[in-house]
Amino acid sequence: MSVAPEKISSEQELDEILSRPPEDLVEMISGLDGDILFLGVAGKIGISMAIMAKRAVDLSGTKKRVIGLSRFSNKNQIKLLEKAGIDIIKGDLLDPEFVKGLPKVKNIIFLAGMKFGSEENLSLTWAINAYLPGLVADHFSGSRIVAFSTGCVYPLVPVSYGGSKETDKPDPVGEYAQSCLGRERMFEYGSLRHGTPVILIRLNYAVEMRYGVLVDIALKVKTRTPVDLTMGHFNVIWQGDANAMILKALNYCQSPARILNITGEEVLSVKDVAIQFGELLGIEPEFTGKESKTALLSNAEESFRLLGYPEVRVEKMISWIADWISNDRPLLNKPTHFEERDGKY
Predict the structure, then answer these.
(1) In what order do the strands lie in the sheet with 87-90?
(2) pLDDT in tens, 211-234
């Protein structure tokens, strides 16, 4: 992002900013061989990331296709992607025959996954998060694959530690996080078996104006709902920055599969952030619970070294979100449940 605005006043402006490619991404895309296929494009992050990729392709002057695949329960998402010049494939990745018929695209961004409601349907959670990646890893064995994972595969660590590193042993809490480690293992197996270049992105947490940990905290402050301090610390990254970094990660796929944490630079205090929102919204925040000495935190220094630092600072995100919330602008109404410590989402 060249110049961050003082505030973001509409979804149209927000979508443009979230999908605006930085110059180094355009340069990277210009030298990338092959088309780009987004599997599970219709989630919270996929739409803006796919459009960012397409904008980068156009600015690079190359002729790569950008393709978005999903079941597409929301037809407006199809219109948004097609308007951006993205080709659409509609179908269910849990269908092995459908997967076998997909074009062998060189660059794969794998975004499919299940989190919310996972405790209510654990078999489906495992099917989507672990079985489906095996199908994809086999079919796209000749591609390079950037696969979404989550920082939830790490254990809770002391806040003083500064966050889990890629070299730390995973110890997932709860079946959702366990199934996400299963997803990683399937891509790792495919990478070893076929020599497929893979990078596993452990992301936590991407935020924008309509969704994310910061929105959750801001809404509690605004509605005078006590903010739970039990999970007292967290990391966040602006979704536009996450989009760009994850796309640039295509250059760092390798076999055996590589692991990369993507998040912001700071370890944030839930209480401090709630107080900042309180000051901006003119409301005294209420609190419940006591801060624990451990939290789900990631250290993303390796990604900064490879991909550059995030452009949007936390203070700017808080300011934008406070203005957005105070003006009752649209929300996704999907709480992150970041405060859960037992892994049950």
Answers:
(1) 87-90, 66-70, 36-39, 107-110, 144-150, 198-203, 258-262
(2) 999 999 999 999 999 999 999 999
Backbone angles phi, psi at 227, to 5 degrees: -85, 125
Q: In this predicted model, what pLDDT tens digit does every residue of 169-201 receive, in sequence order? A: 999 999 999 999 999 999 999 999 999 999 999
Nearest-angstrom CA–CA distance, 131 and 112:
12
Q: Are 46 and 38 in contact (CB under 8 A)?
A: yes
Amino acid letter for position 291: E
- Contact 176/152 with Cβ under 8 angstroms? yes
C-alpha span between 204 and 189 (Å, rounded): 24
Neighbours of 319 (CB within 10 A): 18
Per-residue b/e over 84-100, b at no fewer than 16 CB within 10 Å?
bebeebeeebeeeeebe
Q: What CA–CA distance (Å, rounded) separates 235 from 319? A: 17
Stretch 114-125: mean pLDDT, rounded? 78
What CA–CA distance (Å, rounded) separates 27 from 50?
A: 17
* Cα(119)–Cα(175) distance, integer angstroms: 8
Residue-wise pLDDT for 147-171, tens only, equals 999 999 999 999 999 999 999 999 9
Distance of CA 283 to the CA centre of its chain: 30
Q: Which element (helix H / strand E) includes 234?
A: strand 233-234
Question: Are 176 and 344 spatial neighbours (Cβ–Cβ below 8 Å)?
Answer: yes
Partners of 259 in the beta sheet? 200
Q: Are 274 and 216 in contact (CB under 8 A)?
A: no
Q: Which residues pair with 69 in a beta bridge?
A: 39, 89
Give the pLDDT confidence of 231-261 residue by residue, as tens digits: 999 999 999 999 999 999 999 999 999 999 9
pTM over cut 0.90: yes
Q: What span, in angstroms and rounded, lies between the C-alpha atoms of 99 and 331?
A: 33
